[in-house]
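## tool: complex_structure
## caller: assistant
## args:
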Amino acid sequence: MASPASTDASTSSRDKILDTAEPLFARSGFAGVGLREVAEQVGMGKSSLFHHFPSKVQLYVAVLERVFHEFDQRLELRASQDEGPLAQLHGWATVVVGMLAEHPNWAALLLRSLFEGDVIGREDQARIDVIFSRIVARISSALQAGIASNEIRPVSIPHTIQTMVGMTVFHFASGDMGDDLLGEPIYSQPQLQARLSHLHDYIDHALATRPLDSPT
Amino acid sequence: MASPASTDASTSSRDKILDTAEPLFARSGFAGVGLREVAEQVGMGKSSLFHHFPSKVQLYVAVLERVFHEFDQRLELRASQDEGPLAQLHGWATVVVGMLAEHPNWAALLLRSLFEGDVIGREDQARIDVIFSRIVARISSALQAGIASNEIRPVSIPHTIQTMVGMTVFHFASGDMGDDLLGEPIYSQPQLQARLSHLHDYIDHALATRPLDSPT
DNA sequence: GTCTATACACCGATAGAC
DNA sequence: GTCTATCGGTGTATAGAC
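## result:
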């Protein structure tokens, strides 16, 4: 659905390269992937890659930007229904889990891009940062609104965002370690549902002010 | 305290190499570090490294094992005071934040080792997994005991552990992204304290059954 | 737009002198 | 235990034919 070419099955070489490189970068990181491996899997010569991307770094950047872009779009789409802050957070949690489930490479890719600093040039990093900031700002607004209206406890907004990013991105990037811990694959249907429930539970119990606590 | 030389300032070559390699692997990952760079910073020739470690992989493993080992030890030490499950979790949170603050490379190193699967051989990975399992088992026991005694809500234990690992390891590995989000360095004193408070808050509000709920 | 051929630096690892 | 020299291989990237 949705991704590369609009109406037919044909995919541009550029997209094919991106699709091929994405899981490789996700698994092995920027330094861990050789262009030979990418070219081989795409089915073309190494040199041909340079016709579509000026350098390995730019290929990596293109992969990242595509992911951040759609991530941002899907969150924005869900934000357009305007609901209360808690419902908004619940909705986003559902969207994020859905997206990461649909694209099992993305969590690792996002995780890398968030904590591996240097690999990308300043300008490219800045463009990605803009998108990321937009995502953060949205969550931040929801939290702020919720705190103002006393639906959400007065938690630290940045620390809560860090926690929520960790609860989603880190969890779905945790690979074998996560599988072992859960005793079942992270991306199995029951565990996807379990993670979503866990997120909803977090929102309701760690963030929401309990009815019992609210002032008379 | 165990590690390299006990009473004097001299450090074995082996330890010096480990100390040098640790931040490099933390920042750039296994594939992103060249032995030339390591050797240069240690102040010896590339080849000399092979006198102390049979291969690059084994050097990496040695770095990881050292970290996991001390991590495990410090948690065990703190476990020896026997307290209630909630107090135990609070204590561990304090210990973990303290350790990660003391060793700013560790979070990134641990994060990589948790989600980058392939780089290490089976046997070495198995040895690390044993240590990690011990850590997980301890937390798991505390949660289980707390749930049994009704001090802790009946949360999913594996998912809660994933969340807590993310709240610590991911947070302290988040580098520039985390700094930007907090508006202040993650490892600054106020933000260290803030993260610890956030963790305590999580334990008290997301995990603990509220006093109001507990049976007489 | 893809290919072959090639440039040049660096990689991890080994051999052997000191 | 550290060094120099060197091995074979791979890395990104370029040149130029088709």
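## assistant note: Chain A is about 70% helix and 0% strand. Residues 34-36, 46-47, 50, 55-56 of chain A lie near DNA strand D (CB under 10 Å from a C1'). Handing back to user.
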